[in-house]
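Duplicate of #3305? Posting structure anyway:
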């Protein structure tokens, strides 16, 4: 579908190679549900201001006007590959209501991306912008990041030699090792300190783990807390951490 983004300018919107409408960006279109489909679909619907999202993507990526958007559907988030007229690509990710606690899930994911990119050699997309306040001009929480280069492993696995497969597996275990040896001071989720201003709800990282004094461990935002419902249905009396011991 051709959709007007600005005066005299249109963009193409597609999903899995087929043109779709703007409404299809908001709705879950990756399958059907046998049980309580209306409720299941509502937990995976996110409505937002597409024009403002595109303008934000162009601004933070120093790009040109948006040329096309490809929707990559997920079970917990909308992921939009935004391509600009100069060829630059970014990914905008918007959490669905079933992704976990409002604000916390987005804030934690942004912090994890930044922490991993600066404190390890694990290749992750560069964090360009994020907003965990759904009242922002986009009208939804979002993360905008650079598109990671490369191809999906399953598309080339059969063409790899046994030697190359072993090298790849060793490389993956080395990356996992970098993450596994990080000893955080508490159980919970990682956040930027400004996301969790209340001292009682956060545990600061020491200078070895966080020499820039940017991060803390805060409450868990695991979707399991929702027990299959939306984040709004979570019992506010539950203690979700952080916990310095189990």
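Output from current build:
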């Amino acid at each position: 579908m051709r959709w007007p983004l600005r005066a005299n300018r249109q963009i193409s919107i597609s999903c899995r190679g087929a043109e779709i409408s703007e409404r299809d960006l908001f709705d879950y279109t990756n399958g059907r549900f046998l049980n309580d489909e209306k409720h299941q679909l509502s937990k995976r619907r996110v409505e937002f201001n597409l024009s403002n999202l595109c303008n934000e993507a162009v601004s933070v990526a120093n790009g040109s006007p948006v040329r096309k958007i490809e929707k990559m559907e997920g079970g917990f988030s909308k992921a939009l590959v935004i391509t600009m007229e100069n060829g630059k690509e970014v990914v905008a990710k918007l959490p669905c209501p079933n992704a976990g606690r409002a604000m916390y899930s987005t804030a934690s994911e942004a912090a994890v991306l930044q922490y991993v990119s600066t404190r390890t050699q694990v290749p992750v997309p560069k964090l360009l912008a994020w907003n965990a306040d759904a009242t922002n001009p986009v009208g939804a929480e979002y993360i905008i990041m650079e598109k990671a280069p490369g191809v999906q492993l399953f598309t080339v696995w059969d063409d790899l030699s046994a030697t190359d497969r072993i090298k790849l597996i060793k490389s993956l275990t080395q990356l996992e090792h970098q993450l596994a040896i990080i000893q955080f001071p508490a159980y919970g989720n990682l956040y930027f300190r400004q996301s969790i201003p209340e001292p009682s709800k956060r545990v600061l990282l020491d200078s070895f783990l966080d020499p820039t004094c940017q991060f803390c461990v805060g409450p868990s935002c695991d979707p399991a807390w929702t027990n299959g419902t939306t984040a709004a249905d979570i019992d506010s009396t539950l203690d979700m951490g952080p916990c310095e011991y189990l």
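Confirmed duplicate; merging threads. Residues 105 and 119 are 21 Å apart (CA to CA). The first strand starts at residue 2 and ends at 6.
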